[in-house]
Amino acid sequence: MKPLKIGNLCAPTPIVQGGMGVGISLSGLASAVACEGGIGVISSAGLGAIYNDYSKDYREASIWGLRQELRKARQATKGIIGVNVMVAMSNFADMVRTAVAEKADIIFSGAGLPLNLPSFLTEGARTKLAPIVSSARAAALLCRKWLAEYKYVPDAIVVEGPKAGGHLGYKEEQLADPRFALEAIVPEVVAEVRAFEAAHDCHIPVIAGGGVYTGEDIYRILALGAEGVQMGTRFVTTEECDADPAFKQSYIDATQEEIEIIRSPVGMPGRAIHNSFLERVKEGLKRPKACPFDCIKTCDVTHSPYCIMLALYNAFRGKLQNGYAFCGANAWRADKIQTVRELIASLRSEYDSFSLRERLFGAK
């Protein structure tokens, strides 16, 4: 594997650990990945619930929580630490400003187009910015917008395919359409980015994620022009993942048939593991009377069958009877808990073995 270079950052292992909320990727997982040469990513989603003891004010607790997680990660590693901030979050600006102030190495931002993300950079800030997109068109729009409005070029672009976990930037009918498969959209995004690079004398590495599970997957995606991959699901079943053991076990116990697409209260399709909570939702779970967090801009409490923040927070704590686990399409393939070091070593070994076969025998 070639290192992933993002400006002056260099990850010897070209793997970005996807940001997973609520609480699934905090400083524990992110620092472990960074120690192994990848890019560890802290999810900023739901930190106000996790750090509720600090303040009952959700936004205040979120700011405090992100500071604490970034500082804990910094104490644990000299590697690259990023933060994932969803555009759809009501405290998007707070989380971006906090990440910049705490000198996070890079901010990854999706769940909407982060059109104004560069506006939050302060003078002398070294934090890199990487938007997450689901199409070449979105990548081109962001590149043009950032350059025109802020004289800023994305430091990297993440393209997420429809096999990703959690909220998906696709319409439900597009999820199984081969035209929107990661293997189809990566070359389109790479071509769009290369044209922009040529026109503006810059370099923007493309990182691809969504269903990347093995070393062979990594090889095939990098062969399409991506310079790194994003992986979330694989890191859930690691010892260092910040989720409760019951959350991790739900991946190991899941069958392929139990991975389903749900309609989230935030108005986007999502991929999750079927359980009794989601069954009750389908049967008509009682709606919340009030919104305790005001965490997502697009969530309408008057029409929501449940509070997504509470559901995901409960799952993070292992209380899956009152929540559910988001996951990628390959979550059912998990069969054991291992360390991050063991996982990355196995991915490297698989990559090298497949690379050798390709060189010796050619593509099959």
Written overview of the protein:
The protein folds into two domains: 265 residues, Aldolase class I (TIM Barrel, Alpha-Beta Barrel); 87 residues, no CATH class. The strands form three sheets. It has an eight-stranded parallel sheet with strand order 3-11-10-8-7-6-5-4. Strands 9-13-12 form a three-stranded antiparallel sheet, with no helix packed on it. Strands 1-2 form a two-stranded antiparallel sheet. The chain contains twelve helices and 13 strands. With 364 residues, the chain is an alpha/beta fold.
Topology:
Layout lengths: L3 E3 L2 E3 L3 E3 L9 H9 L3 E5 L3 H4 L7 H19 L3 E5 L7 H10 L4 E4 L18 E6 L2 H15 L6 E4 L5 E2 L14 H19 L5 E4 L5 H9 L4 E4 L1 H4 L8 H9 L5 E5 L5 E5 L2 H9 L23 H9 L23 H22 L3
Parallel strand pairs: 3-11, 4-5, 5-6, 6-7, 7-8, 8-10, 10-11
Antiparallel strand pairs: 1-2, 9-13, 12-13
The CATH C-level name of the largest domain is: Alpha Beta
Given as residue ranges, the uncertain stretches (5+ residues, pLDDT < 50) are none
- Overall shape: globular
Rg from Cα: 19 Å
The number of distinct structural domains comes to 2
Helix content: 25-40%
* Helix segment tally: 12
Number of DSSP strands? 13
Structural class comes to: alpha/beta
CATH architecture of the largest domain: Alpha-Beta Barrel
CATH superfamily of the largest domain: Aldolase class I
